[in-house]
Amino acid sequence: MPTMKFLNVVTMGLALASACASAQDAKPVTPEQVKAGTEIYASNCATCHGNRMKNPEWAIDLATIPKDDRQRFIQSVTNGKGNMPPWGDVLKPADIEALWAYFVTGHQ
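RE: above sequence
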């Protein structure tokens, strides 16, 4: 029985850690971030991903990406993915967070 209690505690701890990580991904965005993200997107991303993040001719349609995976988004923008170059040397972390704010709000 002590082993079972230990496993239950470990399982609950892992579930709590996972919930905390998910909560971090769900940070609220500010209107200032959305505005900054809109400008950054227009300057750096719209050429490939389209003016409204939909149906670009030669890049992934951002409307198809889940809006609940902040880490994946940040990782892809920072390090690049597929044909997309990395932007981590060009954009500051705050800029990438602003892009995330623009992306998740679907602000047009």
